[in-house]
Fold this protein.
Amino acid sequence: MIRALGLTIPLFLMACASPTVVDEVQMYDNSLNCQQIYAEYQQAQRYEQEARDERGLTSTNVMSVIFWLPGLAATYLNTEDAIEAAQDRQQHLLRLSQMRGCR
């Protein structure tokens, strides 16, 4: 029984996906050059895509439905926050690149 519990607890902990919720403005943004802004923009796009991928039929989401339905709801809400944050970050970086005259 204890062994089964030891295997079950990690499943519950893994049942909550946690995509990255990035801050729109980073402390170092004002020191970025155009190439760095572009790299940051690409990273924000990756964060958005990773969050969108978490919404699909993943093993984590299947486990959430089977073992812990509130985990699925928490995953969905967290992915929404992560997507919005990544989009806000991208918009901020676009504005920054325009201010700097980047292409």
Observations:
- The chain has one domain: 2-16+26-100.
- Residues 5-15 have pLDDT under 50 and may be disordered.
